[in-house]
Design brief:
The chain has 295 residues and is α+β, with helices and mostly antiparallel strands. The chain has 9 helices and 9 strands. The chain has helices spanning 3-31, 91-98, 158-172, 179-190, 215-227, 229-240, 247-266, 269-276, 281-284; strands spanning 47-52, 62-70, 75-88, 110-122, 129-139, 142-152, 192-193, 198-199, 204-210. Strand 5 (129-139) and strand 6 form a beta hairpin.
Length: 295
């Protein structure tokens, strides 16, 4: 086993460990007796389904595990997916990566990628939706990390936004005072919807193609992006989940979900790469809300 093989295994194991921590925490939220409007609902549980990447020629191309909780007390739909995929990049997928000017992409078409992706759509429109993903990508000529998290409320509360960003900043400050401002600015640009001329939500952090030459440092930064999710988000769920809502509140949520779906289908890099590289379409499109509306 080469050093990079060991590093790839460490990254993949970390993504699975984070998945397990998040799904346990979310099921604990479902078990709470202080649920407000949906207290009579049965607590939701995650269902796990294996996913496969299609290589096109029948060879082993890896896959993953799609964990989805539907119609719970708190979560209308939340998916937490992990994957390890590998093989040969098709021309469309290669162009999608090479167009970003990543050094080392000319070294070959062989690739390996692993990551975790989470999207939560909530029953109560006062509870914000949230997204988080982290990933590692490797080719013979290079490797890099990517990921981020962002808050997506249909009804905005300034104290929720402050808590979310302050928690993220606290996790990133150990990697340098410049990291939070750098990744926040990147998120503000990345999660902008040009055809609506507005942001997708209230921001967060985002990075891609992260390769400083120090794998350990970049992996540590990636882990802290994942670790910040629960302390940044769970208090917001507990704060808002018992609030009553009106038909008008639900209407705002459904229209906002339409905006969220537009972004993921038109602009999101992970969606584009997942479909272009032959990964399971249901896993790739897990991020879409169960119900949305356009006006």
């Amino acid at each position: 086993m080469t050093a990079m093989d060991s590093e790839k295994a460490r990254a993949a194991n970390w993504f699975r460990q984070l998945r397990d921590e998040i799904t346990r925490a979310f099921e604990q939220l479902e078990d709470s007796h202080e649920m407000g409007p949906l207290s009579d609902f049965a607590p939701g549980r995650f269902d796990m389904e294996k996913t496969q990447r299609s290589s096109g020629d029948g060879s082993d191309a890896g896959g993953g595990e799609m964990c989805v909780l539907r119609n719970g007390r708190v979560f209308e739909k939340v998916g937490v997916n992990v994957s390890v995929v590998y093989g040969t990049l098709g021309e469309t997928a290669r162009r999608a990566v090479a167009s970003r000017g990543v050094p080392g992409m000319d070294a070959g078409l062989e690739f390996w990628a692993s990551g975790i992706s989470l999207v939560a759509h909530m029953q109560n429109p006062h509870v914000p939706a949230v997204h988080m993903n982290t990933r590692m990508f490797w080719t013979p000529g290079t490797w890099w990390f990517g990921g981020g998290c962002d808050l997506n409320p249909s009804i905005e509360y300034e104290d929720d936004t402050r808590h979310f960003h302050a928690t993220i900043k606290a996790h990133l400050d150990g990697h340098g005072d410049d990291q939070y401002p750098r990744l926040k600015k990147w998120a503000d640009e990345y999660f902008h919807i040009p055809h609506r001329n507005r942001a997708r939500g209230v921001g967060g952090i985002f990075m891609d193609d992260q390769n400083t030459g120090d794998w350990e440092a970049d992996f540590a930064l990636t882990r802290d992006i994942g670790k910040c999710l629960l302390p940044a988000y769970v208090p917001l769920v507990k704060r808002r989940r018992t609030m009553d809502w009106s038909e008008s509140d639900k209407e705002k949520q459904l229209v906002y979900r339409g905006l969220y779906a537009e972004y993921n289908l038109v602009y999101d890099r992970g969606t584009k790469f997942g479909l272009a590289s032959g990964h399971d379409a249901n896993a790739v499109l897990m991020s879409l809300p169960p119900i949305a509306k356009w006006i």
